[in-house]
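Good day; I would like, with your permission, to put a structural problem before you. The record follows directly beneath this note:
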Amino acid sequence: MNRRISMLLAGGCALGQAFFLFAYHPVRRRVLGDGPALLVRHDRQVLEVDLDGFAVRDLGRPDGWVPQLVFVVLCAVLVYAVLRAVPGGRPRFGGTVLALSGALLLAAGLAELTGPALDPGAQGSTLSAQEWLVRARLDGAAGVPEQFALWTLWLPVLTWAQTWLLHRWPAAGELLGMADGADGRAAPLLPTARERRDVVAAGLIPVVLLCLAGGRVLRHTNVRELDLSSLTFDPELWLPYHPPALIDAWSGVLYPALRLRPLGTEHTAPWLATLAVCLVFLAVLAAALYALAAHATAGHPLRFVMNCWYATVLAATAGALAECAVAGLAPLTAPRLDPPDGQLLGLVLGDAVRFGAVWGWAPGAACLGAALLVRRHGDRTRPPANKEQLSHAE
């Protein structure tokens, strides 16, 4: 899609989001007056997704409006980049919708991380998992930027779909077309399935390491009663569990769902449920990275890294939805048993998107490095084109 229409659609999406975020409460105050109803927070929900929790409430404090501004600006930039990358001939609707979803969730995760840095009472720019939970209890909501991004996803998707439906009209067709008027498709970066599998394996390495680190944060509270007939002085059974100091400090942006063994007093079913959530995340991420490797072309390294970043955010979101499903089907085996009332979706969604926003560049950089190494090795081992033609002629 060309530059002009991409800027138009991205700017329209950003203006719509900014209008709602900055004008919702002033307009509501003017219409309803300064009544007690305005003191109720997060009282507008659709399908349990918070609508007004991310709206600006206090312009007098930087942490009251800067995250919203960061979200709007990042959404405009990322949506523009996604639309510019849409092929002009036959756009992939599913891939474009997923890329737009990842872009909006990535913007929401980065915007949420700016809140603690701007809070006057914050001790640091990074909160631990327990501090995020306390913050959710005090605010009465969790993951509100991510929930706002989910329900505003229709805005860029609908405007882009309408644009492509109208592009067959002669008047509208002059405004649309290939990016910079280019036609055709570049050569694939990874032509063989083996090369793609190698790249996917390299991209999963940093994510698995981060999951192993994050697993040290989570300890299930559904445990067996201790058998007093067999006394033990194992500190894992008697003392409160504390992860290492470094992991605890970064636990707010780690994925707390993978432990390779159950704890001493933990039932097997809760541990398997915890492990299943992380396996969903890893399986979705592997499939997404393989699809991206299959469509990757030479000459766009930054685009490839950003697509892997989006894939990490979306895979973590799939893991969050799996955790919500486990909590709904078997509450006693859910990975976390103490979320605030009605905030399970926001809590797990916030954890997942923050993880993807902070660490999504790692699988992207790993995939890009592996792809360049595989491509260089393939160029060295692959015979030149003129020799192939001579062998076929003989």
